[in-house]
From TrEMBL:
<dbReference type="GO" id="GO:0005506">
    <property type="term" value="F:iron ion binding"/>
</dbReference>
<dbReference type="GO" id="GO:0004497">
    <property type="term" value="F:monooxygenase activity"/>
</dbReference>
<dbReference type="InterPro" id="IPR015879">
    <property type="entry name" value="Ring_hydroxy_dOase_asu_C_dom"/>
</dbReference>
<keyword id="KW-0408">Iron</keyword>
<keyword id="KW-0560">Oxidoreductase</keyword>
<keyword id="KW-0479">Metal-binding</keyword>
<dbReference type="GO" id="GO:0016705">
    <property type="term" value="F:oxidoreductase activity, acting on paired donors, with incorporation or reduction of molecular oxygen"/>
</dbReference>
<feature type="domain" description="Rieske">
    <location>
        <begin position="37"/>
        <end position="143"/>
    </location>
</feature>
<dbReference type="Pfam" id="PF00848">
    <property type="entry name" value="Ring_hydroxyl_A"/>
</dbReference>
<keyword id="KW-0001">2Fe-2S</keyword>
<dbReference type="InterPro" id="IPR017941">
    <property type="entry name" value="Rieske_2Fe-2S"/>
</dbReference>
<dbReference type="Pfam" id="PF00355">
    <property type="entry name" value="Rieske"/>
</dbReference>
<dbReference type="GO" id="GO:0051537">
    <property type="term" value="F:2 iron, 2 sulfur cluster binding"/>
</dbReference>
<dbReference type="InterPro" id="IPR001663">
    <property type="entry name" value="Rng_hydr_dOase-A"/>
</dbReference>
<protein>
    <recommendedName>
        <fullName>Rieske domain-containing protein</fullName>
    </recommendedName>
</protein>
<keyword id="KW-0411">Iron-sulfur</keyword>
<dbReference type="InterPro" id="IPR036922">
    <property type="entry name" value="Rieske_2Fe-2S_sf"/>
</dbReference>
Length: 420
């Protein structure tokens, strides 16, 4: 696997086993999802003490819970008795975390409260649920189970806060959430998200997202020339509006040169330019946070390795990819609206989700097609186009981190053999 990673030519997709082999999937969990900061949920999903969600990355399961003191914690969803899963629901609210197997009961801070067994005495303070690191950045909750998590998440927070603070995501309300199981490797899910070369297959999204996204002046095909010119005018108008309101809009991109790789920007939308709708009009009548204007385009944030976000003036959409197996990935999409927005009055859930429900379903089909093709003996890695620069950036980030991880793994193996 290390040889396959090292031998990848630049701007070329990976060899088939890196997408299809169950052993490689296990290595991905160990080398990426057990070492990096991962997007897990939002503060809006656990607003009150006792609120929790569970998230899974392969075999890794965490409980993200807000304690009685208001602190958000990440606890390994593994009972300290004999390892049973503690919380089995995807979300809920509870005063205590109780394992159904033998009723070991924990406080929301992970401390063991109750382990009923007549005649047994042991130090309960030694058997709290294991914890993971947690970081809330403008209402987006990231977790890391590594003993020493990457520190450059500080740089990410500093860079994205001016873009995200105005949305006040932490105080937003969950309008709805949809889980979609894609029949493909998690890397294919992320690759698909990182380009718009395939966006001709997204007619609903194309109503508001410019079809030229990801292109440059010298790569725009003749049939998209008018769209390109219109996008330039829209971007210029958006930049003027942002400058007037004191809002940042320039691209900040560090997708390959750090652990917490990211890209953030504010970009114009087509039509009326307010939201992801068929007409471009707003989908909720309430502005988020302290945003001053409905026509602020979309704030687009990508974070390695598993998340992307769209911030509109009327709602925010979060997307998280949770790897399930070598050929399955759960994509969780959450729509957030202003705290005082009322369903049926200020927004309609079906209208709010229309574009991305269809777009996500189309993407799931594309990912499945890619997995099926890559699983064939006829597959040979192909080239990334210039409009797929962010795909190349993601795969470059991935190969660098996995190569380093496997190098360390092999060095430890060699050292162990030498000592033996």
């Amino acid at each position: 696997m290390l040889d396959l990673l090292r031998s990848r030519p630049p701007r070329t997709s990976l060899q088939a086993p890196l997408y299809t082999d169950p052993d490689m999937f296990a290595l991905d969990i160990d080398g990426i999802f057990a070492t990096q900061w991962l997007f897990a949920t939002t503060d809006a999903e656990i607003p009150d003490p006792g609120d929790y969600v569970t998230v899974e990355f392969g075999t890794l399961s965490l409980i993200i819970v807000r304690g009685d003191d208001g602190t958000v914690r990440a606890l390994h969803n593994v009972c300290r008795h004999r390892g049973a899963r503690v919380m089995t629901d995807r979300r809920g609210s509870t005063a205590r975390l109780t394992c159904a197997y033998h009723s070991w009961t924990y406080n929301t801070d992970g401390t063991l409260l109750h382990a009923s067994s007549p005649g047994e005495t042991f130090d309960r303070t030694c058997f709290s649920l294991r914890t993971a690191h947690v970081r809330s950045i403008c209402g987006l909750i990231f977790v890391c189970i590594a003993a020493d998590p990457p520190t450059d998440i500080d740089d990410l927070e500093e860079a994205v806060t001016p873009y995200l603070a105005g949305f006040d995501i932490a105080s937003a309300k969950v309008a709805t959430q949809i889980d979609l199981l894609e029949e493909g490797n998690w890397k294919l899910t992320m690759e698909n998200n990182r380009e718009c070369y395939h966006c001709g297959g997204h007619p609903e999204l194309a109503c508001s997202l410019f079809a030229t996204w990801g292109l440059t002046a010298d790569t725009v095909p003749p049939e998209l020339a008018a769209d390109w010119d219109r996008s330039l005018l829209a971007d210029a108008a958006l930049q003027e509006r942002c400058d007037r309101h004191g809002l940042p809009w320039k691209i900040i991109e560090h997708l390959t040169d750090r652990d917490a790789g990211f890209r953030i920007s504010r970009e114009a939308l087509d039509k009326t330019g307010e939201s992801f709708s068929v007409t471009g009009d707003r989908l909720s009548q309430k502005l988020l946070g302290d945003l001053p204007d409905f026509r602020l385009g979309r704030t687009s944030l990508h974070v390695q390795p598993n998340a992307w976000f769209h911030g509109l003036s009327d709602h925010v959409i979060t997307f998280a990819a949770y790897p399930v197996s070598a050929d399955r990935t759960l994509v969780r999409t959450t729509w957030l609206v202003a705290e005082d927005a009322v369903a049926g009055e200020d927004y309609d859930v079906d209208e709010l989700t229309y574009v991305w429900r269809h777009t996500n379903a189309q993407d799931a089909d594309f990912v499945q097609l890619a997995q099926q093709g890559i699983s064939s003996p006829g597959y040979v890695p192909g080239p990334y186009m210039r409009s797929e620069d962010q795909v190349e950036a993601f795969i470059s980030w991935y190969t660098a981190h996995m190569s380093s991880h496997l190098d360390g793994h092999l060095d430890g193996h060699r050292e162990g053999r030498a000592q033996a």
